[in-house]
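tool_call: predict_structure(chain=1)
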Amino acid sequence: MSLVPFQCRSAYETERDLLVQLRHPNVVQLLATCEDEDESASSGRRRSLVLELMGGGSLRGHLDDATGPMEATHLIAVAADLAAALVHLHSLERPVLVRKSKSFRAR
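tool_result:
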């Protein structure tokens, strides 16, 4: 982890340092980072996080593409996977609180 004081750290640095430490089957893994010079960016640098490819697509994509109601067994499996990931994040030595979760409407 960087020794930069928390107040001075960018959201990019905070997320990067957090993702580097996470290992769980229900949490997308960080594979690499990239920083390029970019005069159009406010910091003068363009920063990217390279994340694991989700071969089956994202949960959001599955929910948005649903043509009808999701089967109860599938909905329960999705909820169980999400709960397992959250339990893992909350049980770490330095617990991770998820603040950007977005609600969705089960169809």
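agent: Residues 1-6, 103-107 have pLDDT under 50 and may be disordered. Proceeding to next step.
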